[in-house]
Design goal:
- This protein is an alpha/beta fold.
- The protein has two domains: 2-66 and 252-282, no CATH class; 71-239, Glycogen Phosphorylase B (Rossmann fold, 3-Layer(aba) Sandwich), CATH 3.40.50.
- The chain is 49% helix and 11% strand.
- It has helices at residues 2-5, 11-23, 40-47, 64-67, 81-85, 105-118, 136-140, 152-156, 170-179, 192-202, 217-228, 230-250, 256-282; strands at 30-32, 52-54, 92-96, 121-125, 144-147, 161-166, 183-185, 206-208.
- A six-stranded parallel sheet has the order 5-4-3-6-7-8, with helices on both faces. Strands 1-2 form a two-stranded parallel sheet.
- It is elongated.
- It starts with a helix and ends with a helix.
């Protein structure tokens, strides 16, 4: 894709992605962190080349994820529970661009002014506040909470959260769908533009932050208003409720992901048995 070939793309990351595409050709099986119902055409195409199984959402698979906590960042997590409990239902916009993306100063300034114009409650994951406009934190006071890192699942699952401004990393998209929180999409590179296309164009559970060109505060405020208030917001919430139910149903005993995982185990055993037979015959 053009954005992968762009000269300003992250070189090391691109090398990793390129190497992964080469290595996956040697795999006997491909496990995908998605559900059959959402990406059936893509999964069918992949399955023509290699056995492919949609077993997602792996982030929430079984009780293992409830008892084993895997840290996603070296940053200490801030507990936002008390602050969120003081806010009305669906009134808080959660803003996070993940642990890798580095947003530039000008965009931070425009997003900050957009938040001021929108008057929305928000939690913003921001490593440093140096780039924020002078006086911004005083202006937002109790309306905004700025922290370097948090437990994203805990925040998204809060009844107070009504929207997610995201870079569209797959884990973030998945967690937002699981919690039924519609998205404002602001992708950067690798899989993120494709994920944006799915969220906005195919599944109708999010909107774009910018329709092209530079990030502008007026557009930021307008998109926040569309996501958080009015008929468009209601339509987005109805659609993402359906998607959230689809994800949860997939993990049920007779759900598609559970059936696919069971089939993978059977096929894996058969492949291992066949290889033992080949080794035995060759000896």
């Amino acid at each position: 894709m053009s954005y992968i070939q762009a000269p300003d793309a992250v070189p090391v990351l691109m090398k990793i992605v390129g190497k992964a595409f080469e290595q996956v050709k040697n795999a006997d099986f491909i496990l995908c962190n998605t559900v059959q119902e959402l990406e059936s055409e893509c999964l069918s195409a992949l399955n023509l080349m290699q056995p492919t199984y949609a077993i997602g959402p792996m982030n929430f698979f079984s009780d293992f994820t409830k008892t084993v906590v895997v840290e996603k960042s070296l940053w200490a997590e801030s507990d936002c529970t008390h602050w969120l409990s003081s806010k009305p239902p669906a009134s808080v916009l959660y803003i996070s661009f993940g642990s890798i993306v580095q947003i530039n100063k000008q965009d931070i300034v425009e997003i900050a002014h957009g938040l001021l114009l929108s008057q929305v409650n928000f939690i913003w994951i921001l490593r440093t506040t140096d780039a924020l406009p002078v006086g911004f934190q005083d202006d937002v006071k109790d309306r905004g909470l700025i922290v370097p890192w948090c437990n994203q699942n805990a925040v998204l699952s809060s009844p107070a959260v009504g929207g997610f401004l995201t870079h569209c990393g797959w884990n973030s998209v998945l967690e937002s769908m699981w919690s039924g929180v519609p998205m404002i999409c602001y992708p950067f590179y690798v899989d993120q533009p494709t994920n944006r296309k799915l969220v906005v164009d195919d599944w109708k559970i999010g909107i774009d932050l910018c329709d092209g060109g530079q990030t502008m505060r007026e557009e930021v405020a307008s998109k926040i208003d569309i996501l958080m208030r009015g008929k468009s917001s209601t339509d987005l919430r109805e659609e993402i409720k359906k998607v959230s139910k689809m994800w949860r149903n997939a993990l049920e005993t007779d759900g598609s992901s559970q059936r696919n995982f069971d089939k993978f185990v059977v096929d894996l055993r058969a492949r291992l048995y066949a290889r033992r037979e080949d080794i035995g015959s060759n000896n």
